[in-house]
Design brief:
- The protein is α/β, with parallel strands linked by helices.
- The protein has a single domain (about 5-275), classed as Aldolase class I (TIM Barrel), CATH 3.20.20.70.
- The chain is about 50% helix and about 15% strand.
- Strands 1-2-3-4-5-6-7-8 form an 8-stranded parallel β-barrel, surrounded by 9 helices.
- Bound molecules: zinc ion.
- Zinc ion binds next to loops.
């Protein structure tokens, strides 16, 4: 089927009590394995390009490959442009045919973040594209201050105002989550998540789901998270698969045989993540 809009995928998820996995991709394997896993689980998936991966693959190539693979499968596939750090970067995502773009102004003061988000929302509306923004700062899991300092977490009252005044479609929030590996086991602030959920009716997004214990991810979905981003653990799964193949040193192994084996591990990883987000076992 053609690509499905992020909002439509998240609406389906809300109506059926599951969270949607959004995977960062940087080559054909990471796109393909996400879609194969979605088929096996009979669930939608959102493919995301991070505009810092140009040295691995161009944004245009991810858009083309994802569109091509989506057309060949029956599960809904979304195409999202992740973490634009400026209005100009978000425009790149818009021009390149992404169906939703993120403008991440979370490192800037609230008023600047709101201004940039509203600017991107206006441009995106004209092109029928949806917009994700971030409020509160989702930093790096290896930086203790990003994980433990509640001053970096999303303030529920600010979230309400932010959404009302910018018209944004989806909101990434900070409640103890962070990108990459974590310095210690994360302890998400669920009371904060619930309070944000009460004040904000648009879909909420969890960034940095890698290495958050499954039970906390599940509880996040129960309390209203609809889109869950994963990158680090997915890429680590690729690396572990590669390491396994290399360690074995089997005569006759080639790039092709290695890729087949690595793909299988990646598909299984994505399937397992999808099950964590789908406590009621919904399937299409
Ligand atoms: Zn992120």
């Amino acid at each position: 089927m053609p690509l499905m809009k992020t909002g439509a995928i998240l609406k389906l998820a809300r109506e059926n009590g599951f969270g949607v996995l959004a995977t960062n991709v940087l080559n054909y394997e990471t796109i393909l394995c996400s879609i194969r896993a979605a088929e096996a689980e009979r669930l939608p998936v959102i493919i995301m390009y991070y505009p810092g991966y140009e040295s691995f693959i161009p944004a245009e190539a991810v858009a083309l490959l994802t569109r091509y693979e989506a057309a060949k499968t029956w599960v809904p596939v979304g195409l999202h442009f992740d973490h634009s750090k400026s209005v100009e970067q978000a425009m790149w995502g818009l021009r390149t045919g992404y169906l939703s773009v993120m403008i991440d102004g979370s490192a800037h003061p609230l008023e600047d973040n709101m201004r940039d988000t509203a600017t991107v929302v206006r441009a995106a509306r004209a092109m029928d594209v949806e917009v994700e923004a971030e409020l509160g700062f989702v930093g790096r899991g290896l930086n203790p201050d990003d994980v433990n300092n509640p001053n970096k977490f999303t303030v529920p009252g600010e979230a309400e105002r932010f959404v009302r005044e910018t018209g944004v479609d989806f909101l990434a929030i900070s409640y103890g989550n962070a990108h990459g590996d974590y310095i210690s086991t994360p302890m998400l602030d669920f009371a904060r998540l619930s309070e944000i959920r009460e004040r904000v009716n648009i879909p909420l997004v969890l960034h940095g789901s890698s290495h958050i214990p499954d039970e906390q991810v599940r509880e996040s979905v129960r309390r209203g998270i609809l889109k869950v981003n994963v990158a680090t653990e997915y890429f680590q799964t690729f690396y572990k698969g590669l390491y396994g193949v290399m360690k074995r040193e089997q005569p006759g192994d080639t790039y092709k045989s290695a890729v087949e084996e690595i793909r299988q591990g990646m598909i299984e990883f994505i399937q397992a993540k999808m099950r964590v987000l789908n406590p009621a076992g919904f399937s299409l």
